[in-house]
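thought: fold this chain, then report.
action: predict
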Amino acid sequence: MNASTTNPAPFAELLQRAVTEPGTISAAYSAFHGYSMGNQLLAMFQCERRGIPIGPIATFRGWKEKGRYVRKGEKAIVLCTPITAKRKADEQPVTPASDDSKADTFTRFVYRPNWFVLAQTDGQDVQPLAIAEWNGLRALETLGIVEEPFTGTDGNCQGYARERSIAVSPVADLPHKTRFHELAHVVLGHTAEAEAGPSDSELTPRSLREAEAVALVCLEALGLPGAEHCRGYIQHWNDRRGAEPIPERSAQRILKAADQILKAGTADPGDRQ
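observation:
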């Protein structure tokens, strides 16, 4: 079977469904948390479409090493994987001799049908992987971001981000939501684009929507309160715009940023990603 037969959805469609269907992200994260957020959603929706119970996934060889075997006739789940390739001689960019030698390589993403869900296998019992608790201090250290004391004078301001630092108001209604929102601004590069603006009001609506979407993914993945507020804001913004809700490129940025923030808070402090 090739990847084209599964017709994998673009990440914009996956994210749009996650925005409109409460519980989708948390269900995907608890089942497929070892993979990127985009692949977690991709795997979940394929399972739903094919009537397969969601659960741990692995390659044919991976299940064999765990003492389980893929049943004959089972069709693989498709995930998006990065491939590093070398440019052809006539495609090499013209660069100074001092430039990094990696300029002759590039990364592209391809969909490959190499994974199977636990329900598609037989054999030894498999214990589900425990999801590590998300640690905010660890995330800040891993991401190289500093949380500084809040110095804003606007009582309505929940928090702000500038350069590589964030601040959360001590009276913020939903501090977890605000912290993820501000972290997202930094990870997505919004603070660099805005040249360290001290307030969200200086950021564009596109940037606000992206940061709110990242906050939604993180909150729902970790089961923290506030996801419904993020979802309401994003849906209101989409309705007001009356255009394509979430462009593909923006969806990829959102899922990648959420993945970075979630993994930064659960990774070993000495393990930099």
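thought: worth noting. The first helix runs from residue 11 to 20.
final: tokens above.
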